[in-house]
Design brief:
By secondary structure, the chain is of the alpha/beta class. It has a domain of about 350 residues: ABC transporter type 1, transmembrane domain (ABC transporter transmembrane region fold, Up-down Bundle). It contains 19 helices and ten strands. The strands form two sheets. It has a six-stranded mixed β-sheet, sandwiched between helices. A four-stranded antiparallel β-sheet has the order 2-1-4-5, with helices on one face. The longest helix is centred in the first third of the chain and has 51 residues. It is elongated.
């Protein structure tokens, strides 16, 4: 449990640690106030039963003792108003504490979610290749809530209720020392038995809950992101079953968690009632005076009334900490893993990197997992400024991996990529600002065409001149004129209102928005029909000689006009030359040409 506390504290921002300290102190004060409230009730009941005993009670006797000597009735009325005022003040303070606690947990929950997303976004691209996005979303939306809503709140409640119980024990010890010791030995044993029985179960249920939640999110993503194929292939039942199975498992786990959350109260209630009754029997058997018996019974009854929910909250807090420990471990590990392997900032950091002559790839080798074989082997390549280069090869030949290294998303195991002699890893932000990237699948946000072209910029940061220039270069002008609201037209979720060609042109416009010197097309036309592909290729042709271009293609027609074509085979450069040169001298490349009927 101390491990969970240490990790939770490590995930709280340093600037709010004083807030955590204040909450802890207030939790202790809240516990003391609860115990004092019970003590005041005991004093008041004792005054009602036997007013003569008031003068024997420390502090209270000095305050109201003289009043009882003069007029008992007025003194009792005075005590009644004093008791009411005391409880009102206590409860107002407790309301303030609860608000302060809620503010602390909510603010830090939001802060941790933002910092976790920041770590994910800035983490190395290679880490994202090994993780499922559903798990990352679950961590941000669910696990963070579990940490603050269950674990940290559990620690706060544990401290508050423990102080209240300790203070209450002190009050009871002053009244009935032997009975109190006996009762709390029994109660402590009962709580220990219950916690030892349940802690391993709550820990296992918490782990299974996190896993099932991830599976639920994963199945939803698969269903909604591929809704067209789901309908065409008739895979609704598969998606439903893949969702239903973890959903039912999650329901079963939460049933156990919720059912067990009520068990501590019933268990503690039974033990406390039994302890109080045994105390009453013991007092009666000792032959004490009726007034003493009544006041003692009242004190134990009040203590039991307040202690039942406190002990229940303590057990719930302990089990909550156990069930949330897996979420704590997940987030703690992710924060450290992504921070320990950061990708350099992709934001404008003021760096500059001049590209005046050539991009050089020198002896680059790369493998995704050490020991599983290299994906790229000793790649040596030079791309001159203004040159267009096509990358072709069968699937798995290393084309996309090579481009990811050129984009400075992946770090080569050996070798380097340099621009005019400067390693791009020394200035990745400056290098990426010179690149316009067009992937095969264009991500379209559920927003306006303008915001999709200037993706990631606030409205006040968008340049109208740059938008119009990108629209013109991507040959989107006639398309924009035909839209009901022009650039302000909503494109729908994932661009459902766009054709394939329109989607690719929007992607090209996005890549051209900041007027990059280098354009990279990663199979940008492979999903288009021949006519649409020809239209997009005509748009690309306009940049030859003006932009430095790297074009990955399965369709060889896309790279036919490139200045040079690089043919990759099994992670190595098999040949380099013009399209016609490779077709004439390289049998493997010529086979691809014949298959493409070019």
């Amino acid at each position: 449990m101390l491990t969970e506390l240490r990790k939770c504290l490590a995930m709280i921002e340093r600037k709010t640690l004083w807030h955590a300290g204040a909450v802890s102190i207030l939790a202790l004060v809240a516990g003391m106030l609860e115990a004092i409230g019970i003590g005041l009730i005991f004093v008041f009941v004792q005054a009602l039963i036997d007013p003569t005993q008031i003068q024997n009670i420390a502090v209270v006797g000095k305050l109201v003792g003289p009043a009882f000597v003069e007029n008992e009735t007025e003194a009792l009325i005075l005590m009644s108003f004093g008791l009411l005022a005391g409880f009102l003040i206590k409860n107002l303070i407790l309301i303030g504490f609860y608000y302060f606690q809620a503010s602390f947990t909510a603010a830090n929950e939001a802060s941790l979610a933002v910092r976790l997303l920041d770590s994910y976004l800035k983490g190395a691209y290679s880490l994202h290749l090994r993780r499922n996005s559903a798990d990352l979303i679950r961590n941000i939306t669910g696990s963070v809530t579990a940490i603050f809503g269950t674990v940290i709140t559990g620690f706060i409640n544990l401290a508050s209720e423990a102080v209240m119980i300790v203070a209450l024990i002190v009050v009871l010890l002053m009244a009935e020392p032997m009975l109190t010791l006996g009762a709390f030995l029994v109660l402590g044993a009962a709580v220990a038995i219950f916690f030892s029985f349940s802690k391993s179960r709550f820990s296992a249920w918490g782990m299974r809950e996190q896993k099932a939640t991830g599976e639920v999110l994963k199945s939803l993503q698969q269903g909604f992101h591929n809704i067209k194929e789901v309908k065409i292939l008739g895979r609704q039942r598969y998606i439903l079953e893949s969702f239903e199975s973890p959903c039912l498992e999650l329901a079963g786990i939460r049933t156990k968690l919720r059912a067990m959350s009520g068990a501590p109260r019933l268990w503690v209630e039974s033990v406390i009632v039994a302890a109080v009754l045994l105390a009453v029997i013991s007092i009666l058997s000792s032959g004490g005076r009726s007034a003493e018996i009544l006041s003692s019974i009242t004190l134990f009854a009040i203590a039991a009334f307040r202690m039942i929910p406190s002990m229940n909250r303590i057990i719930i807090a302990l089990n909550g900490i156990k069930s949330g420990s897996h979420a704590v471990e997940l987030i703690y590990q992710d924060l450290h893993a992504f921070r320990a392997n950061p990708d350099e900032e992709s934001e404008d950091d003021g760096q500059t990197l001049a590209f005046k002559t050539a991009l050089s790839i020198n002896g680059v080798s790369f493998s995704y997992d050490q020991g599983n074989g290299a994906v790229l082997k000793d790649i040596d390549l030079v791309l001159n400024k203004g040159e267009s280069m096509g990358l072709v090869g069968r699937s798995g030949s290393g084309k996309t991996t090579l481009v990811d290294i050129v984009l400075s998303l992946l770090v080569p195991d050996s070798g380097a990529v340099t621009v005019d002699g400067t390693n791009i890893r020394d200035a990745p932000s400056a290098w990426r600002r010179q690149i316009g990237y067009v992937p095969q699948s264009i991500y379209i946000t559920d927003d306006t065409l303008r915001r999709n072209i200037a993706f990631g910029l606030a409205d006040h940061e968008i340049s109208e001149d740059m938008i119009q220039n990108a629209v013109r270069l991507a040959q989107l002008e006639s398309f924009v004129r035909g839209l009901p609201d022009g650039l302000e037209t909503q494109l729908g979720d994932r661009g459902t209102r766009l054709s394939g060609g329109q989607r690719q042109r929007v992607g090209i416009a996005r890549a051209l928005y900041r007027d990059p010197g280098v354009l990279i097309f990663d199979e940008a036309t492979s999903s288009l029909d021949s006519e649409t592909e020809q239209e997009v290729n005509q748009a690309i042709e306009k940049f030859r000689g003006e932009k430095t271009m790297i074009i990955i293609a399965h369709r060889l027609s896309t790279v036919r006009a490139c200045d040079r074509v690089v043919f990759l085979k099994d992670g190595r450069i098999d040949d380099i030359g013009t399209f016609e040169e490779l077709a004439a001298r390289n049998s493997n490349f010529n086979n691809l040409v014949e298959l493409a009927k070019l």
